[in-house]
Design a protein that fits this description.
five-stranded mixed beta sheet, 19 helices, 17 strands, about 50% helix, about 20% strand, elongated
Length: about 600
C-alpha cells in the first residue's frame, strides 16, 4: 500500500485468480505434479502392486529425486513467468491509460492540432476543428491545407517563414470556414525532420482568434468615430471663428452697398452694378450660414416652402449612393400645400429615411418607394394618434421591401443610440434625429412593418395657409427719430459702417471699440444714450457682460446684441443679461431698422 491507502502490491488476488497469468502458474504446478506422481500413480492404480507406496518410502531412489527437482523447477518457472506476465500486464494498462488520456486531450483540446506531410496534405487533425470551421476531421484528412486559406498569399508567407526558420510562433493567417466565411487564426508550427535531416512533415496548432480580431476592428472603428466626432467638434469651433470674422468682413460690404443703392436714382446705371455687389455678398452670407449649420447644427429660421422641391433634390443626390439592385419609385404630388419648416432639417429627414430603406435591401435588392401627397386627418385618426390634429397635412411616405422590423425592436427604433446595425453602418441616432425634427415641426412619424415584407414610414407635416405669406422684394426700411445709439464692436470696419448705417437711418451714432471703453463713457453720460448695440464676442468684455453692467447703471436701457456665430441665445439668457433683441451678422439694413424700432417703440 502507498500513503494514500491504495493497493500497489504485485498481486491483487481477485484480479489474479481470473487472469491469464494465474492460468499459466497453475498449469505449471499441474505439470510438475504430473511429472512427480503420474508414473507411480498409474502403476499403483492400474497394477495394484503397491509400487507407488514403495517408491514414496525409498528416499534413496534417484528417480524420485530427479522428479522432485524437476517439479520444483517447473513451479519456480511458473511463478516467475506469472510475475513477469503481471508486470507486462501492468505496463500494458499504463500504456493504455496514457493513450486514452492523450486521445481525450487530442479530441477535447480547444485549439486545433494538425499534421501534414511535406507537401501540405493533412495527415492528422484534431476533432476540435469542427467547432471552429464546421469541417469534420474526416473531411480534412487527405485534403490539401492550402485550399482552406481565405487569401492564398497567407499560405505562401507561412511556407516561406517555415522554410527560413523551421518554425513559426503566433503567425496570423486567414482561413475559410465551411460556409466560406472568414476565420482569423494564430499558427504555432514546426517542420519535422527524419534521421538524416530531410524535412518530412509539418505539425503545429491553430488557435481561433476571430473574436479577438473582430473586437480589435470594432475598437478601431469606434476610435475612428471618436476621432471623426472630435474633428467635427474642432471644425465647428473653427467654423464659428471663421464665420465671425467673415461676417465682420461682409457687414461693411452689405452696409455700404445698401446705402449706395438707396441713394441712387431709379434710372442710374450704377444700380445694377451695386445690385451685383449685394447679390454676391448675400451669397457669401448664405455660405457662412451653411458652414454654421453643418458644423454646429444651428437652426435656421423656418420658412414656407414646397416639400417636393427638396425631395427631388435629395433623390438626385442619393441615386448614385443607392445600390443598383434597389429600384426607386416616385409618386410625388407637386400640388401639395407648403409647410413651415427648416429646409436643411427636412433635407436631413429625407436622407435618413431613404438611407435606412436602401440599407434594408442591400443584400437582396428590392423597391424603394417615395410618395408625397396631401392628407386630411379626421376625428377618428386624430384620436388614434395624439400628436396629430384634425387638419391638413403633407404626408411623406418612404417604404422598402426589405426584411422588415420585429415588433420588439419596432418599439425602440426612435430611442437614441439604439441600433441593430453593425458599427460601420450606423450609430443609432438617425431615426432619433428624424423623430425629434418631425415633432419639433408639430408633426408626427408613424411606422408599419411586416417581417419578410418590408417597412413603411409616414411623416406628417402640417400645411400652412399660403395666403398669409408676405413676399416683398424690397422690405420697408423704417427711419428713426434722431435717437442716440451707442455702438460697441472690436472690429473698426464694422463700427464705422454701423455708424454710417445708423446716420443713414436718421439716428445719432457714437462708436466705441471695446466694452470697457463703452462702459466708461456710458457711466459718465448715461442720459445721453437711448439704445446700445453691441457685438456678442469681444476680447476684453463680452456683449452679455457689458449689457449686465450697463443695466446696473440704467435698468431701463434697451440693448441689442449682434452675433456672427449663429448662436441661439436662450430666452433665459436674454432675460438674465437684460438683452432686448438679437440680430445676426452680417447686418442687413432693413433688419437693423426693424429691430431698432421694435425695441425703442415698446
Amino acid at each position: 500500500m502507498n500513503r494514500s491507502g491504495k493497493d500497489i502490491s504485485i498481486f491483487s488476488y481477485s484480479d489474479w485468480l481470473f487472469s491469464f497469468r494465474s492460468v499459466f502458474f497453475l498449469t505449471a504446478v499441474l505439470i510438475a505434479l504430473s511429472v512427480w506422481i503420474f508414473d507411480p500413480f498409474v502403476d499403483a492404480v492400474l497394477l495394484g502392486d503397491g509400487s507407488f507406496y514403495k517408491q514414496l518410502t525409498q528416499p534413496e531412489s534417484k528417480e524420485i529425486y530427479m522428479r522432485t527437482v524437476f517439479s520444483v523447477l517447473i513451479i519456480v518457472i511458473g511463478l516467475v513467468g506469472s510475475v513477469l506476465l503481471n508486470r507486462s500486464r501492468q505496463a500494458e494498462k499504463i500504456l493504455h491509460k496514457s493513450e486514452k488520456k492523450y486521445r481525450e486531450i487530442f479530441e477535447n483540446v480547444r485549439d486545433v492540432f494538425y499534421q501534414t506531410d511535406y507537401h501540405g496534405i493533412v495527415t492528422e487533425i484534431s476533432p476540435s476543428v469542427e467547432r471552429h470551421s464546421g469541417y469534420t476531421r474526416e473531411a480534412l484528412i487527405g485534403a490539401q491545407l492550402a485550399n482552406f486559406y481565405f487569401y492564398p498569399d497567407d499560405y505562401l508567407k507561412l511556407c516561406d517563414k517555415l522554410e527560413e526558420d523551421s518554425e513559426v510562433n503566433d503567425f496570423e493567417i486567414r482561413m475559410k470556414d465551411k460556409d466560406g466565411g472568414l476565420i482569423y487564426v494564430s499558427v504555432n508550427a514546426q517542420i519535422i525532420f527524419d534521421a538524416v535531416g530531410n524535412p518530412v512533415a509539418t505539425e503545429g496548432t491553430l488557435r481561433d482568434i476571430t473574436e479577438r480580431k473582430r473586437a480589435e476592428e470594432e475598437k478601431i472603428k469606434l476610435e475612428a468615430q471618436l476621432h471623426h466626432s472630435q474633428k467635427l467638434e474642432t471644425l465647428g469651433t473653427l467654423a464659428g471663428g471663421i464665420a465671425h470674422d467673415f461676417n465682420n468682413i461682409l457687414t461693411p460690404i452689405l452696409g455700404y452697398a445698401d446705402m449706395v443703392i438707396s441713394d441712387l436714382p431709379p434710372t442710374s446705371p450704377l444700380r445694377d452694378d451695386v445690385g451685383h455687389i449685394l447679390s454676391g455678398a448675400n451669397r457669401a452670407k448664405e455660405l457662412v450660414e451653411q458652414i454654421l449649420l453643418f458644423s454646429k447644427q444651428v437652426e435656421k429660421e423656418r420658412k414656407p416652402f414646397s416639400l417636393h422641391l427638396i425631395l427631388k433634390e435629395v433623390l438626385k443626390l442619393l441615386r448614385p449612393t443607392i445600390p443598383a439592385t434597389v429600384e426607386i419609385r416616385q409618386r410625388i404630388d407637386t400640388s401639395c400645400d407648403k409647410v413651415l419648416a427648416d429646409a436643411s432639417q427636412m433635407h436631413q429627414v429625407i436622407v435618413n429615411l431613404c438611407t435606412n430603406a436602401s440599407q434594408a435591401m442591400e443584400e437582396k435588392g428590392g423597391v424603394l418607394t417615395i410618395e408625397l401627397k396631401q392628407a386630411k386627418v379626421d376625428t377618428s385618426n386624430a384620436k388614434l394618434h395624439i400628436n396629430l390634429n384634425e387638419q391638413e397635412y403633407v404626408r411623406l411616405t418612404v417604404s422598402d421591401t426589405g426584411a422588415g422590423i420585429d415588433d420588439a425592436i419596432l418599439e425602440r427604433i426612435f430611442e437614441p443610440f439604439f441600433t441593430t446595425k453593425p458599427v460601420d453602418k450606423g450609430t443609432g441616432m438617425g431615426l432619433a434625429v428624424v423623430h425629434g425634427i418631425v415633432r419639433s415641426h408639430h408633426g408626427d412619424i408613424l411606422v408599419n412593418s411586416v417581417l419578410g415584407k418590408g417597412s413603411t414610414f409616414h411623416v406628417y407635416l402640417p400645411t400652412i395657409n399660403t395666403e398669409v405669406e408676405s413676399v416683398t422684394n424690397e422690405p420697408e426700411v423704417i427711419l428713426g427719430n434722431r435717437e442716440s445709439v451707442l455702438v460697441v464692436d472690436d472690429d473698426e470696419a464694422v463700427g464705422k459702417v454701423m455708424q454710417r448705417l445708423l446716420q443713414h437711418l436718421n439716428y445719432k451714432a457714437d462708436v466705441r471699440y471695446s466694452g470697457i471703453e463703452a462702459l466708461k463713457i456710458f457711466r459718465q453720460r448715461p442720459e445721453e444714450y437711448d439704445l446700445v448695440i453691441s457685438d456678442l464676442t469681444m476680447p476684453d468684455m463680452t456683449g452679455l457682460e457689458l449689457s449686465e453692467q450697463l443695466r446696473n447703471v440704467c435698468s431701463e436701457l434697451p440693448v441689442i446684441i449682434m452675433t456672427g456665430y449663429g448662436d441661439s441665445l436662450t430666452d433665459a439668457a436674454l432675460e438674465t443679461y437684460g438683452i432686448n433683441h438679437v440680430i445676426g451678422k452680417p447686418v442687413v439694413t432693413h433688419v437693423l431698422a426693424s429691430a431698432i424700432r421694435l425695441v425703442l417703440d415698446k
